[in-house]
């Protein structure tokens, strides 16, 4: 997707040019925003904290679900109203017609992870300063997350073709980064104070398939661009390493011993999406959930502390009552620790839209509530089992002697928290040992031991 400039004359501000950033969507989009910010700062632009202080605004959009598209279009409208000079990038940028129809005043539109195109658009509409202060950019780049954790993107795009998803159409096939690149970035982040690395991509376990697991030189040895090899090397950096968006391929089994040895966090974010083989087939996902149950049991035998986070879709076209019950029964067996559930929404351009027998909205709603109720009981029980243990907790927010943090079983923003008290003040980013005293449906409570 090429840049689409719509206004000719670049703005020439008297002072340092300032760019405002609105970042919508998933952690992958957040990483894109961070890269853009790093480039902007490297070239001497400043980042404006609000619309009023910005010479132009960059909106990084999400286009996955219709609701996300609506949110993106609303955010673009808000930025135009508040500032007037707006460049759009990100997933929805793959459809410039949609954006320009809704907001003809947008200056330029670029697609997802088109960093060069975004920078060209910024240069066109806001002249870069003459003397960029390169030394103002920290070696670790600039990040939108708190100082103590960072997302680490290992690849772009996806080779799967799940029928409800248009990400491969938006972002293309899998393109993996060389392992040495990823490791060097991870090393810089840890050196800059990051205590937790959140590994993300569209399909983390497929890492390296596109480059035939080719090796690259890191420190004094070659490292294959392979899920297990990268996980092992990341585990040597002295930070928490958390794996997200792991597609349930058989070789995921290999990483469990690393978790049992404490090299990486005992946490797997696997979007299973459903349990009925027929629905999984219609979704074009791996369809052997009975075998998956066996694998989950084996994983927990090897690593009893393993927490599994997953997402599911209810109300997929043609989902019968029996198939939904099959999903509930599977959940009871699998004992998924953390769960996100979506009501199926047709996404413009997705193959699943052509499937017969759409599920009525009220049935989707009822199924969503039933599933969340079942999950709440499972999650509450899993948390109750932690009471009495002493566990490491990373502090996210502190008021001195009371603080909120996360255990190794909780990813930021999507999972639960650990609420704690301490005799001595604690600081954000510290990892402390906490004795768990009680639990509720989502969170743990305890005292620094
Ligand atoms: S694995 Fe499926 S749902 Fe995830 S990005 Fe790829 S196609 Fe979409």
Structural class: alpha/beta
Strand content: 15-25%
- Residue stretches low in confidence (pLDDT < 50, at least 5 long) are 1-9
Shape verdict? globular
Cofactors, ions and other ligands in the entry: iron/sulfur cluster
User: What is the overall pLDDT average?
Assistant: 89
Q: For the report, how would you describe the main beta sheet?
A: 5 strands, parallel
Report the helical percentage.
25-40%
- Over all CA atoms, what is the radius of gyration? 23 Å
Query: Number of helical segments?
Result: 12
What's the total number of strands? 20
Q: Strand arrangement, largest sheet?
A: 2-1-3-4-5
Distance separating the two termini:
54 Å
Could you explain the architecture of this structure?
- The structure is a single chain.
- The chain has helices at residues 27-42, 66-82, 96-102, 115-125, 167-171, 179-191, 227-234, 256-260, 277-283, 289-302, 321-334, 361-384, and strands at 18-23, 46-48, 56-61, 86-90, 108-109, 149-153, 155-156, 175-176, 196-200, 215-218, 221-224, 240-243, 267-269, 307-314, 338-343, 390-398, 400-406, 418-426, 431-439, 444-448.
- It is an alpha/beta fold and 449 residues long.
- The strands form 6 sheets. Strands 2-1-3-4-5 form a 5-stranded parallel beta sheet, sandwiched between helices. A 5-stranded mixed β-barrel has the order 16-17-18-20-19. The chain has a 3-stranded parallel beta sheet with strand order 6-9-12, sandwiched between helices.
- Bound molecules: iron/sulfur cluster.
